[in-house]
Amino acid sequence: MRLVAVGRMKDKAELALVERYLKRLRPRLDIVELADGRGSPDEIKRREAQAILAACPPQAFLIVLDEAGRSFSSPGFSEAMAEWSALGRPLCFAIGGAEGLDAAVIERSDAKLSFGTLTWPHMLVRIMLVEQIYRAQAIAAGHPYHRSGRP
Ligand SMILES: C[S@@+](CC[C@H](N)C(=O)[O-])C[C@H]1O[C@@H](n2cnc3c(N)ncnc32)[C@H](O)[C@@H]1O
């Protein structure tokens, strides 16, 4: 699995949180960081889109992080991950930069994943995604990391 993310994570506390979950993931997630685009907001999005699409294998099942996408429960996301994985295509997640994702990336995507209608900073989205992928794997494995305490 791959995560293509715009922006270089430099903050040590953020890096430690990503690493906390990353090291537990099976299959592992390989993170490709892309430099922030330059120019006007449209140019930035267009350039970042080219780089994102180039970093995803052409046959990949592309899941974009998009606030207008689909919200899952964690068990629902775990099921979706199992269904996507069963397709036999490499999974590739993409997170945009400060200007967001270009329409070309959204149009190319096979699924859109939302963490709610609030706009989150892209580095926090990266941390939350890695944690939710770990949680999805824990649910699939019956590991007690995920506790369903709801009635
Ligand atoms: C700071 S946000 C970009 C905001 C930008 N103005 C826009 O409208 O998309 C950076 C990236 O984080 C991700 N993101 C932010 N909030 C999100 C949410 N609620 N659900 C899923 N992804 C989100 C998206 O991939 C977005 O491109």
Automatic annotation (TrEMBL):
Which Pfam family would be a valid example here?
SPOUT_MTase
User: What reaction gets catalysed by this protein?
Assistant: pseudouridine(1915) in 23S rRNA + S-adenosyl-L-methionine = N(3)-methylpseudouridine(1915) in 23S rRNA + S-adenosyl-L-homocysteine + H(+)
Q: Which residues form a coiled coil?
A: none
Q: Does the keyword rRNA processing apply?
A: yes
TM regions (residue ranges): none
InterPro entries cross-referenced by the UniProt entry: Alpha/beta_knot_MTases (IPR029028), RlmH-like (IPR003742), tRNA_m1G_MTases_N (IPR029026)
Q: Which GO terms describe its cellular component?
A: cytoplasm
Question: What EC numbers are recorded for this enzyme?
Answer: 2.1.1.177
User: Which residues are involved in binding S-adenosyl-L-methionine?
Assistant: 65, 96, 115-120
Q: Which SUPFAM superfamilies match?
A: alpha/beta knot
Record's subcellular location:
Cytoplasm
One annotated GO molecular function is: rRNA (pseudouridine-N3-)-methyltransferase activity
Q: Which UniProt keywords apply?
A: Cytoplasm, Methyltransferase, rRNA processing, S-adenosyl-L-methionine, Transferase
Superkingdom, taxonomy of origin = Bacteria
Q: What does this protein do?
A: Specifically methylates the pseudouridine at position 1915 (m3Psi1915) in 23S rRNA.
What is stated as this protein's family in its record?
Belongs to the RNA methyltransferase RlmH family.
Its assembly, as annotated, is: Homodimer.
Record-given protein name: Ribosomal RNA large subunit methyltransferase H
Which gene is annotated as encoding this protein in its UniProt record? rlmH
